[in-house]
Specification:
The chain is mostly beta strands. It has one helix at about 80-90; strands at about 5, 10-20, 20-25, 30-40, 45-50, 50-60, 65-70, 70-80, 95-100, 105-110, 115, 120-125, 130-135, 140-145, 150-155, 160-165. Residues about 85-95 have low confidence and may be disordered.
């Protein structure tokens, strides 16, 4: 699920994608292969990054996730990217295709930078055993496509974002 996490006052765009080999944590431009396994005890997990295993406890409420490891507790606030755009008044949230519910990307037929016409198929997703083709709501340029074929996504995740197409004389 794509989110904006607030850690020590800094906003960091992050999302976790499932792959055939495990998971990849995306933090801005960084991609970090990892696993998160449940451990014995309520809220207990082990995060494995490279060869490092980090035991932790995690508690989640509506607005934040609380993580305790290494003798410290961290509160991580969460912001839905679409909500952040709405608050900013940019109007850009109208250019985003949001996932209606969790699912998997079945196929992708566009790439960032591609020009698309209204109604053009851009990707196919599957949610609850139902395939849906996501089409362009208007003419534009594909600005962001955070998922590839086989990736899983959460409800309200940004599946694709369009930018206006520049006028040519």
């Amino acid at each position: 699920m794509r989110r904006i996490l607030e850690v020590d006052g800094e906003e960091i765009p992050v999302w976790l994608a499932s792959t055939r080999q495990g998971h990849v944590l995306h933090m801005g431009e960084r991609e970090i292969p990892c696993t998160l396994d449940e451990a014995a005890g309520r809220g207990a997990y082990v995060l494995e990054i490279s060869d490092t295993r980090i035991p932790m406890r995690i508690a989640v409420d509506e607005s934040a996730t609380f993580i305790h490891f290494g003798g410290r507790a961290y509160e991580i606030g969460r912001t839905d990217p679409a909500d952040a755009l709405d608050r900013a008044g940019s109007g850009a949230s109208q250019d985003q295709m949001l996932a209606p519910m969790p699912g998997v990307v079945v196929s992708v037929s566009v790439a960032p930078g591609d020009a698309v016409k209204e109604g053009a198929p851009m990707l196919v997703i599957e949610s609850m055993k139902l395939e849906t083709t996501v089409t362009a709501p208007r003419d534009g340029i594909v600005a962001e496509l955070p998922f590839t074929t086989g990736d899983s996504f959460g409800g309200k995740d940004v599946l694709l974002r369009l930018e206006p197409q520049e006028e040519t004389d």
